[in-house]
From TrEMBL:
E.C. code: 3.5.1.1
InterPro entries according to UniProt: AsnASE_II, Asp/glu_Ase-like_sf, Asparaginase/glutaminase-like, Asparaginase/glutaminase_AS1, Asparaginase/glutaminase_AS2, Asparaginase_C, L-asparaginase_C, L-asparaginase_N
Gene3D superfamilies: 3.40.50.40, L-asparaginase, N-terminal domain
Domain of life: Bacteria
Organism: Lactobacillus kullabergensis
Residue span, Asparaginase/glutaminase C-terminal domain: 205-319
Alphabetized Pfam families for the sequence: Asparaginase, Asparaginase_C
Name of protein: asparaginase
Annotated family: Belongs to the asparaginase 1 family.
Catalytic site positions: 13, 87
Keyword Hydrolase among UniProt keywords: yes
Length: 322
């Protein structure tokens, strides 16, 4: 019995071409959309071009549309799904899908760093490898993964680390969970399961702010308004803030606006370690939620999903910490 794999094309560099001036532009038609690609005799590919957008045009509302389509695909008998995506926001879409799809169906997100007609284009290779991973029995129950450059990364932790290098996607601190070699899909580690929230709508106005030396209260004062639903802060080091920001942060908390804190560092985990004015110990006592292991853009997606599901107070804190 053949395995049906749903291909959802969303656009991005993997679907673009280089023009005569060396500039990369979208095509009116995705070159992968009608491609006849024989991966395995027992794999049946069904292709849908759900979007054709550069990844900076991706929004949480479109991420939700993808999530709903993949959830529907399981009921339609699909074994797995592959999403082709631009790399700029790929990690955010991958995490959104991982947080909102509760099934064990393999879901793979992939893309390319070089357009379809550039020398050394990586799109077709990544696409074929992603289909192999999505159709592998070993991928069942692994959650949403990102497949690029023969590596399998967890959607939860993978991030783009280089503007142009084909090996741009890395899982800081923990490393990839698998590799694809000689046509074989090999998983070498697993990650702990997380709570899934199959939301059907998206709230707005969840913001991301980066801390810096000498930071004052102005940004937080500007965001302290009734329309603000939540803020993620990329804090300094292990999770510390300049003392000048503390009164403004307290006023946000007093207005029941959730504050989630991560580190702006590339590696490591934010933790309440330092006990001085602006240190993590005091921030945690104030009620700021520490999100361990995620970067700022991913923590924002997780906060957005949790708030869209109606989580508040201790429920929200437990969800963010999981």
């Amino acid at each position: 019995m053949s395995k049906k794999i749903l291909i959802l094309h969303t656009g991005g560099t993997i679907s673009m071409s280089e023009d005569e001036n060396g500039k990369i532009k979208p095509n009116s038609q995705n070159p992968l959309a009608d491609l006849s690609l024989n991966v395995n005799d027992d794999v049946q590919i069904v292709t849908e071009e759900i979007f054709n957008l550069p990844s900076p045009h991706m929004t949480p509302e479109r991420m939700l549309q993808l999530s709903l389509r993949i959830r529907q695909a399981e009921a339609e008998g699909f074994f797995g799904a592959v999403v082709t995506h631009g790399t700029d926001t790929l990690e955010e879409t991958a995490l959104f899908l991982d947080l909102t799809i509760s099934s064990k169906m393999p879901v793979v997100v992939t893309g390319a760093m070089r357009s379809s007609n550039e020398i050394g284009s990586d799109g077709l290779y990544n696409f074929r490898t992603a289909i192999m991973v999505a159709s592998s029995d070993a991928s069942i129950g692994k959650g949403v993964v990102v497949v690029m450059n023969d590596e399998i990364h967890p959607a939860r932790y993978v991030t783009k680390t280089h503007t142009t290098n084909v090996a741009t996607f890395r899982t800081a601190t923990f490393g990839p969970i698998g590799v694809v070699s000689e046509g074989h899909v090999n998983y070498v580690q697993t990650i702990n399961p997380q709570q899934h929230l199959p939301i059907d709508h998206i709230i707005a106005n969840v913001y991301l702010v980066k801390a810096y030396a000498g930071m004052g209260p102005e940004i937080f004062q500007a965001l302290n308004k009734p329309s603000t639903n939540g803020i993620v802060i990329e804090a300094l080091g292990a999770g510390n803030m300049p003392p000048q920001t503390l009164p403004a942060l307290q006023k946000l908390l007093d207005n029941n606006i959730p504050l989630v804190l991560v580190s702006r560092c590339f590696n490591g985990i934010a933790e309440p370690v330092y006990d001085y004015q602006g240190g993590g110990v005091g921030l945690a006592k104030m009620g700021i939620i520490f999100c361990r292991g995620l970067n700022g853009q991913k923590a924002r997606i997780k906060l957005l999903v949790g708030l869209s599901a109606g989580l508040k107070n201790e429920q929200l804190k437990k969800y963010i910490n999981n």
